[in-house]
Amino acid sequence: MTGMPSYEAHIDISHLPGVADPAGSTVERALPALGYDNVSGLKIARSIKLVLECASEAEAKRQVTEMCERILANPVIENYAVSVTELARP
Amino acid sequence: MTTRVGVIQFPGTNCELDVIHAMTQLGADASILWHGDPTVNGVDTVIVPGGFAHGDYLRTGAIARFSPVMQAVADFAASGGPVVGICNGFQILCEAGLLPGALQKNAGLKFLCEPAEIRVETSRSVLTNGAQVGQVLRVPINHFEGNYICDASTLAELQAEDRVVFRYVRNPNGALDDIAGVCNAARNVVGLMPHPERASDRLLGSQDGNVLLGSVLSACAKVS
């Protein structure tokens, strides 16, 4: 442990606008069979959660954004949104 | 001299022995390159075969691109060495930035395992130098994420530079512009979703893949 504060990061990864979401559209088409015929715009996205130790919240956000660019998301077809919150010290 | 073919094996790769068998039948000396070794061992060409490298976790090819061997593959490609990615190998080369675009889930959300007809669109690539433009080949596909996509400017560039190597005769997966395979600007890195090694013997119902695998061996002869 580094003694630096811990931050929890939430990352939401979704398809870029215009990129097909066949899983989402398949689920959307299935819902009317259960009586939900009032649903539209269903999207299936991925969510990643992680904890990291960093000197500051800004640095934590910078690192997680870099992870998204390098591996967690594929910028060719995916969007990502990062939120970071500091965890209370034990 | 016998051409040395290196076939990369990641955890989860499952077509490496088929590629080695097909290449050996064509007279090459083919062997495995382990993904954890940071070298291509001086081979004349590198094939990234199909399968489910690293379980396809996160995204297909996303983790494989960080395997130690991939930096060596990038250096080999940059020096003009012929590199071919088949199916999952195509996905890995896209994730690694050696080829443009990405492969997303098939439009019909079905895993497709069936023969496909693909048309050779250019003979100016390491995988098609022995094929004729317009030639239709019967080569199996076997994928869930084969739906090629790239942004509009990349597509325009691929079309203008004659870098769409194969198109499907009947688009099975929703791929943009019917694209089944593309190459890089230097034309020595090619990726395709169909499996030429599965069309390499009369017993398999098609030998159409051999013209492609043979082209790779010819390309090696030119480089060396």
**Assembly category:** heterodimer
How many structural domains are formed by the residues of chain A?
Answer: 1
Work out the helix count of chain A: 2
CATH fold naming of chain A: Mth169, Chain: A
Uncertain residue ranges of chain B: none
Q: How many E-type strands of chain B?
A: 11
Number of helices of chain B: 5
Q: Write out the CATH superfamily name of chain A.
A: Phosphoribosylformylglycinamidine synthase subunit PurS
Q: Give the tally of β-strands of chain A.
A: 3
Rg from alpha-carbon coordinates of chain A: 17 Å
CATH topology (level 3) name of chain B: Rossmann fold
Q: Which sequence of SSEs, written as H and E, runs from N to C of chain A?
A: EHEHE
Described by strand count, sense and barrel closure, the largest sheet of chain B is:
9 strands, mixed
* Structural class based on helices, strands and sheet pairing of chain B: alpha/beta
Major sheet description of chain A: 3 strands, antiparallel
Average of pLDDT of chain A: 92
What's the N-to-C terminus distance of chain B?
A: 10 Å
Mean pLDDT of chain B: 96
CATH class of chain B: Alpha Beta
What is the second-level CATH architecture of chain A?
Answer: 2-Layer Sandwich
Largest protein interface, residues of each chain: A-B, 10 and 20 residues
